């Protein structure tokens, strides 16, 4: 048996673009998704903090260091420029693996630059691993 667990997330990224006339996906600065342990073309869930909309898509890489977060295709209709979103990836783990699993969390500032990298360690607790200023 396997259970789905949060693998990683990029917390409160700011939407910088929405391109309806695109084949689909979310364009993400690779500096962010690599820091979260995500891969290009990986399936992700997106939650819009302002609207409450949730959707699933996959990551494509933008230009490194630009802070780009652009929803493409139909997903572009579910967000607004400037909205804050949470980008989450999941992993299938055995119950034994899940007991010691600690998701990666990337916090960003209003320019989508990394402000803090953390790991969840216990329910309701965050422990800082690194601070980038």
From TrEMBL:
Is synthesized initially as an inactive proenzyme, which is activated by self-cleavage at a specific serine bond to produce a beta-subunit with a hydroxyl group at its C-terminus and an alpha-subunit with a pyruvoyl group at its N-terminus. Keywords: Autocatalytic cleavage, Cytoplasm, Decarboxylase, Lyase, Pantothenate biosynthesis, Pyruvate, Schiff base, Zymogen. It catalyses: L-aspartate + H(+) = beta-alanine + CO2. Catalyzes the pyruvoyl-dependent decarboxylation of aspartate to produce beta-alanine. Heterooctamer of four alpha and four beta subunits. One of its GO terms (cellular component) is cytosol. This is Aspartate 1-decarboxylase. GO terms for molecular function: aspartate 1-decarboxylase activity. GO terms for biological process: alanine biosynthetic process; pantothenate biosynthetic process. Its EC number is 4.1.1.11. Binds 1 pyruvoyl group covalently per subunit. Belongs to the PanD family. The lineage of its organism: Bacteria, Bacillati, Bacillota, Bacilli, Lactobacillales. Its cofactor is pyruvate. Pathway: Cofactor biosynthesis; (R)-pantothenate biosynthesis; beta-alanine from L-aspartate: step 1/1. It holds the Pfam family Asp_decarbox. It is found in: Cytoplasm. Gene3D superfamilies: 2.40.40.20. The active site is at 25 (schiff-base intermediate with substrate), 58 (proton donor). Substrate binds at residues 57, 73-75. Its main location: cytoplasm. The modification Pyruvic acid (Ser) is found at residue 25.
């Amino acid at each position: 048996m396997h259970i789905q667990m949060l693998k990683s997330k990029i917390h409160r990224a700011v939407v910088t673009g929405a391109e309806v006339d695109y084949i689909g996906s979310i364009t993400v600065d690779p500096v962010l998704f690599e820091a979260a342990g995500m891969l290009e073309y990986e399936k992700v869930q997106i939650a819009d903090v302002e609207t409450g909309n949730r959707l699933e898509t996959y990551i494509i890489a933008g230009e490194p260091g630009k802070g780009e977060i652009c929803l493409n295709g139909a997903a572009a209709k579910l967000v607004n420029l400037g909205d804050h979103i949470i980008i989450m990836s999941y992993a299938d783990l055995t119950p034994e693996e899940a007991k010691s699993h600690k998701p990666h969390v990337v916090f960003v500032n209003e320019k989508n630059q990394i402000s803090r990298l953390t790991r969840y360690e216990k329910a309701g607790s965050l422990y800082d691993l690194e601070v980038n200023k």
